[in-house]
Design brief:
The complex is a heterodimer.
Chain A: E1 2-3, H1 5-12, H2 16-23, H3 27-34, H4 42-52, H5 56-59, E2 60-61
Antiparallel strand pairs in A: 1-2
Helix pairs in contact in A: 2-3
Chain B: H1 6-35, H2 42-64, H3 68-76, H4 85-106, H5 122-145, H6 149-179, H7 187-208
Classes of the chains: A mainly alpha, B mainly alpha.
Chain lengths: 72, 212
């Protein structure tokens, strides 16, 4: 799942550790989300959206229309 | 991605030194036993090697937990950020888990711990092993409860990979043993093999998720 986490974080001048503290996960977790190695849970995704004051779909792109998408 | 700060560099150098010292004593034990005509099975050798690796890691992680600034730098990749009390506690427990794992692997091979403690009856050693593994399980539970979803995902992935990587070879070996084409394995052999597979799976999952 693509996301704009790195961009949004950079806009605010936050490090991965800063963001991790704000959303209650480790720096490694933030790094894994940014690099697409970990898809956050729904709860964490909402927490991220809340921290950036944005909607989920403004941050995450699940690529529902891609060939590997879940929709039929 | 881990940023190299002066603290992480010092940590890396100290890791190498501690690893060398512990490795020296561990491998000395193996060579001494071989030279004195003692029988060291491949499982015992593997257990000692693993114990040495885990003890080295354990000493470093446990020791690092007493240097908040360095620990913070290692965790965050930022030199100025000290570790929080929760991070210190977590690393201390993590270090204890590693040291206990080393002890659990070494104690059945050499219950005198290189002659540091007097020889005791097998039953006493067994009780000690059982108590140590109970303590380690408690620490592991504490780590799980204090983990974020990413850590838990990695633990779950490691467990899944370990299960499949263990079940298939054990089934094949068991079948070969039953058919009579492979020698019988002991439970200790299996315990050590499972530990090796678990640690390999854990390293692979950790690297794959970029959390090393």
């Amino acid at each position: 799942m693509d996301n704009r986490l790195r961009v949004l974080r950079a806009e605010r001048g936050w490090s991965q550790a800063d963001l991790g503290e704000r959303i209650g996960v480790s720096r490694q977790a933030v790094n894994a989300i940014e690099t697409g190695k970990h898809d956050p849970s729904l709860l964490l995704a909402f927490r991220i959206a809340q921290v950036f004051g944005a909607r989920l779909e403004d941050i995450f792109d699940p690529k529902l229309n891609a060939s590997d998408g879940a929709s039929s | 991605m881990t940023t190299k700060t002066p603290s992480t560099l010092v940590f890396t150098i100290l890791s190498v030194i501690v690893g060398a010292v512990i490795g020296f004593f561990g491998f000395n034990y193996l060579f001494d036993t071989w030279e004195n005509g003692g029988i060291v099975s491949s499982s015992d050798t593997l257990a000692v090697v693993l114990a040495v690796l885990l003890a080295g890691q354990g000493v470093m992680v446990f020791g690092l937990s007493f240097a908040r600034r360095s620990l913070g730098a290692v965790i965050s990749g930022e030199e100025h950020r000290s570790a929080t009390p929760a991070q210190v506690a977590r690393y201390r427990v993590q270090g204890a888990v590693l040291l206990l794992a080393a002890l659990l692997l070494f104690l059945p091979v050499d219950p005198t711990l290189l002659g540091l403690i007097p020889a005791a009856p097998g039953e006493t050693v067994m009780v000690v092993v059982a108590l140590l593994i109970a303590l380690q399980s408690l620490f592991n539970l504490r780590l799980w409860l204090g983990s974020d979803e990413f850590d838990r995902q990695m633990i779950a992935n490691t467990s899944a990979v370990s299960f499949w990587a263990t079940q298939v070879p054990i089934f094949l070996w068991g079948a070969g043993e039953r058919i009579g084409v492979l020698p019988a394995l002991g439970t200790w052999d299996l315990a050590v093999a499972i530990m090796v597979i678990y640690l390999m799976a854990s390293s692979y999952i950790t690297m794959r998720h970029g959390a090393g």
